[in-house]
Amino acid sequence: MTKRIRHNGRLTQSRIYLGKFLRMFIFQNDWKVLPLGALIAALVTFVVGANIFKTQEGTQMGVFALVCVSIWNGFFNSIQSVCREREIIKREHRSGLQMGAYIFAQMIYQLLLCVAQTAITLAVCSVAGVTIPADGVVTSWGLLDTGITLFLITYTADMMALMVSSIVRNTTTAMTTMPFLLIFQLIFSGSFFHLSGFADKVKYLTISYWGMNSLCSIGRYNEQPMVALWNMLVKFENIDIEGYTPLKDLLIEMEKNGYRDDFLLWAGQQNGVPEYAAEAGNVIFNWIMLAALLIVFVIVSVVALEFIDRDKR
To answer: How many domains would you assign to the chain?
Structure first.
């Protein structure tokens, strides 16, 4: 009579692998992602932190930088986590490892990392003097709304990198792929590059697009002054028309009578973006889209690893 081999259940396997990942965090220097993330956040906020959430230009540039930091953190967390032990996973899968349990353990471990990185990023922003709105759009606290968004961006990017790591066969390929993924996120964020036709549809598949929308909404982009138009007028203030400088005289008169700030606010209202509306439903929808991308990445990761035994590469 053949004795039936009994394997551990999925929850037990997940617990075992979570313990393994935590030990690797301590003893294999995986903890280095935390100070590295802090350094990147510090460099970014040092350069663009002064005007975030104060002017439209400063908010758009600063938010874009924060999104890049969060995506980079997420990518760096897990881009090598699966492929570096691919042969071990393959052997253990043949011995009864459930790939769903393995990915679930990765999800919990990476979630803890992303929470820590989000907290570090917010702390760095505070030290750098970034003024996060006091009032939230979804919750009563702007800091909480911002933290949720940064976490979702980081965690979704993390799961995207985990998916790539589950598909590729070695760390070299994974690290080569990561810059292209980051560039793709930056180009199709919908912020600094004009997109049209099919390219305009691609942005809906990016983490950066939904992250930018959410943070700009929380930062109340549409209610902020726009300074670019005023600065442009100042550049041409010395245009001479038959011995007169009417534009310069107008600008001086506006400043003298205190109309400059009103003009900046008016310019901001004309430059409003519907996707950046400071409405709870708008922010929640962006969060849902990030969560939807996250779920897709997790499903693809599990499916890719289920076929690991067929990998003859």
So the answer is: 2
Residue 68 CA to residue 44 CA, distance in Å, equals 9
Residue 5 domain-assigned (yes or no)? no
- Taking the C-alpha atoms of residue 187 and residue 184, their distance in angstroms, rounded to an integer, is 5
Nearest to 65 by CA among 78, 77, 86, 51: 51
- 193 and 58 in a common domain: yes
Residue 84 lies in domain = 10-224+272-310
Mean pLDDT by 10 residues, the chain (313 residues): 51 82 79 81 75 84 89 90 84 79 91 93 86 90 94 96 90 88 85 75 91 93 87 82 79 85 86 89 95 95 83 58
Q: Which of 271, 273, 282 is nearest to 137 (CA)?
A: 282
- Give me the phi and psi of 240, to 5 degrees please: -100, 125
Overall pTM surpassing 0.70 (yes/no): yes
Number of residues assigned to the chain: 313
